[in-house]
Amino acid sequence: MATSSTPQRAGPGRGRPPRLDAARTVDVALALLDEAGLDALTMRRLADAVGAQVGALYRYFATKQDLLTAMAERMLAGCGDPLPSHENWPGQVAEMAERMRNALLRYQDGARVFAGTHAVGVNTLSFSDTLVGVLRGAGFADEDAARATFAIVSFVIGHTLEEQAADAYPQDGPLLESALEPGAFPHLTAARHTLTSADFGTHFRFGLKLIITGLRHHEPGRQDLHNATRLSRREQR
Amino acid sequence: MATSSTPQRAGPGRGRPPRLDAARTVDVALALLDEAGLDALTMRRLADAVGAQVGALYRYFATKQDLLTAMAERMLAGCGDPLPSHENWPGQVAEMAERMRNALLRYQDGARVFAGTHAVGVNTLSFSDTLVGVLRGAGFADEDAARATFAIVSFVIGHTLEEQAADAYPQDGPLLESALEPGAFPHLTAARHTLTSADFGTHFRFGLKLIITGLRHHEPGRQDLHNATRLSRREQR
DNA sequence: ACCTGAACACCGTTCAAGT
DNA sequence: ACCTGAACACCGTTCAAGT
């Protein structure tokens, strides 16, 4: 992706070295993202930060979406690295999920950038490959390993998205508190302290543990037959 | 939210009836969203569709973000309705998750709209209240019920986001296939058919089943002590 | 080969003025 | 009270022209 949009480089020493290049542009874009957030990351501001005119960016990224994809891909650097082999598979699955969460949390709006793109670079692929590998190594069939990976990634993205949104709108907790007029929503009222708690690390590990426990007790096969009897409304129409 | 930004209405029969109102504007906005997608939903296009000038929209919604929040809130209409009582709690949890998924799937980019807002209207609150209620009714402590709700909602949002993104970029599957040069990423290669499958309903129910199975085998208490020893990198710094 | 300068077709938002 | 008309300060993207 980033590779295909990289222009031809002149041979070493031939011609002027370019003032811009894709890798540095992504670096600066990620720094800008972390400082100001996704809404403030405009091509013009990026051009300023990188010391060029707006149009120059389009030599390296055909579109802003391509830039965001390259940023997403960059974020996952290292997330597919080999795992410490002394851990059992549930620990390894947890480690992979936390790697991804930490990668997205490292930049403001990181989850939004990632969710809004479809990176298929080495970092992203190697992350998925490692996670699928852990599950296949644990004895899961290829299908189940793929589906479990999909579930874990979906959970991580959704959870991190919520967490970073809460970071950006800290007034949201009190807002929910005040929306709970006494009498209505008794269950929400009973659970409000935990729901509005900013301890997202604990929330995350709770949900992750549910998924891993589910995997532990998963019996292969019969999955499709078992579920064929309760299709969602969407598939029924 | 939508309530607070609704302007004072004249008494019945007094003055001209307004050509706009918040409810109809949200209706038209949702129709436009479903037809053209979130990127094409601009205030100007909405004004056209509603038969007014752009500025008129700002009498009912202080900002575009408020409009999107009202849309998100509207999407969840009915999702908090009482559940059929003949089902056991795992079935009821599954039903709530599928209700939310179906609600977000009903409009193009529905998940993106929902993920990008923080609706705290009756529909959203009543949905959460019902889900927390199912879990409390099943015997879960308030804290666990809240955290499980958070996990389920995160999973639904993340999963539906991916599903609708795949709807919008159907060329992405082949793209991943072609990125898998033989030799690299053996696990991804083994699992590629399931990973690129468009059967998101099956994917969704697989992940949902993992979470519900996890809940079934959840033992209350000891959660915090158990996890305190493995903080994520983020909490460590 | 790489970048500038300038333009094009849009945006969200504001606000005086009309009715 | 409700809406129009017009403006302001931006956007992403394109492309001839310079060096």
TrEMBL record, chains A, B:
<feature type="domain" description="HTH tetR-type">
    <location>
        <begin position="19"/>
        <end position="79"/>
    </location>
</feature>
<dbReference type="InterPro" id="IPR003012">
    <property type="entry name" value="Tet_transcr_reg_TetR"/>
</dbReference>
<dbReference type="InterPro" id="IPR050109">
    <property type="entry name" value="HTH-type_TetR-like_transc_reg"/>
</dbReference>
<dbReference type="InterPro" id="IPR004111">
    <property type="entry name" value="Repressor_TetR_C"/>
</dbReference>
<feature type="region of interest" description="Disordered">
    <location>
        <begin position="1"/>
        <end position="20"/>
    </location>
</feature>
<dbReference type="Pfam" id="PF02909">
    <property type="entry name" value="TetR_C_1"/>
</dbReference>
<dbReference type="InterPro" id="IPR001647">
    <property type="entry name" value="HTH_TetR"/>
</dbReference>
<feature type="DNA-binding region" description="H-T-H motif">
    <location>
        <begin position="42"/>
        <end position="61"/>
    </location>
</feature>
<keyword id="KW-0238">DNA-binding</keyword>
<protein>
    <submittedName>
        <fullName>Transcriptional regulator</fullName>
    </submittedName>
</protein>
<dbReference type="InterPro" id="IPR036271">
    <property type="entry name" value="Tet_transcr_reg_TetR-rel_C_sf"/>
</dbReference>
<keyword id="KW-0805">Transcription regulation</keyword>
<dbReference type="GO" id="GO:0045892">
    <property type="term" value="P:negative regulation of DNA-templated transcription"/>
</dbReference>
<dbReference type="InterPro" id="IPR009057">
    <property type="entry name" value="Homeodomain-like_sf"/>
</dbReference>
<dbReference type="GO" id="GO:0003700">
    <property type="term" value="F:DNA-binding transcription factor activity"/>
</dbReference>
<dbReference type="GO" id="GO:0000976">
    <property type="term" value="F:transcription cis-regulatory region binding"/>
</dbReference>
<keyword id="KW-0804">Transcription</keyword>
<keyword id="KW-0678">Repressor</keyword>
<dbReference type="InterPro" id="IPR023772">
    <property type="entry name" value="DNA-bd_HTH_TetR-type_CS"/>
</dbReference>
<dbReference type="Pfam" id="PF00440">
    <property type="entry name" value="TetR_N"/>
</dbReference>
<dbReference type="GO" id="GO:0046677">
    <property type="term" value="P:response to antibiotic"/>
</dbReference>
